[in-house]
Design goal:
The chain has about 190 residues and is mainly α. Helix 2 packs across helix 8, helix 2 crosses helix 10 and helix 3 crosses helix 8. The longest helix is centred in the first third of the chain and has 23 residues. The radius of gyration is 18 Å and the shape is globular. The N and C termini lie far apart (about 50 Å).
């Protein structure tokens, strides 16, 4: 790579072209860039909730940053629908390999001096990475709520499935979010005030 060639950022900006929920009819299209922004907001909130109410020691900034980067590999892989990605253990394993290859390809577009810095942003083996995972699920759940509230029954079974998945987590931050934050997502702007 030419020392002046730093193409990673231009690739990351291509998230705006990656459509989410490709198997579903949506009343409102969603792209990867807006999804990552929403995941960052919620991951940041979960970290603050954990710190202030439950004595945790998360870095809210780190949670938000990891969330902004969590789906960038999809500029190469696309947003593979969940039913496909998780259809079998072989599919899960192959997709994980494919995703790791995408990360390696992305990192090859970063100057060598910065590769360690960027590489660390694709890690989910830290406490904040788990918050990003929860925030990602919450964003999917909120998308289902939005679609159903818009009269789109297409998201009914997805909502039930995600709700079941969320109920399996033992997370005080998640429980707090579900009780105190989630209800506002079903209200109109006038109702929120």
């Amino acid at each position: 790579m030419n020392k002046t060639d730093f193409a990673f950022l231009s690739l990351a900006f291509r998230q705006k072209y990656i459509r989410r929920w490709s198997l579903m009819r949506s009343t409102s299209e969603e792209n990867l860039a807006e999804h990552s922004s929403q995941v960052a907001l919620i991951a940041h909130a979960l970290a603050l909730i954990g710190n202030r109410f439950f004595g945790k020691h998360y870095s809210p900034d780190r949670a938000a940053l990891l969330a902004l980067f969590h789906d960038i590999p999809e500029v190469y892989t696309g947003d593979l629908p969940t039913p496909v990605k998780y259809a079998t253990s072989d599919m899960r394993r192959h997709f994980a390999d494919f995703e790791q290859q995408a990360v390696s390809r992305l990192l090859s577009k970063v100057p060598e001096e910065l590769q360690d810095d960027y590489s660390s942003l694709f890690s989910d083996d830290e406490p904040e990475g788990e918050l990003v995972h929860l925030a990602d699920k919450l964003c999917a759940f909120i998308k289902c709520i939005d679609e159903i509230n818009s009269g789109n029954r297409e998201f009914t079974s997805a909502k039930a499935s995600i709700e079941q998945q969320l109920s399996c987590y033992d997370s005080k931050e998640l429980a707090y979010f579900l009780e105190h934050c989630l209800p506002a997502f079903s209200r109109t702007l006038d109702e929120i005030g």
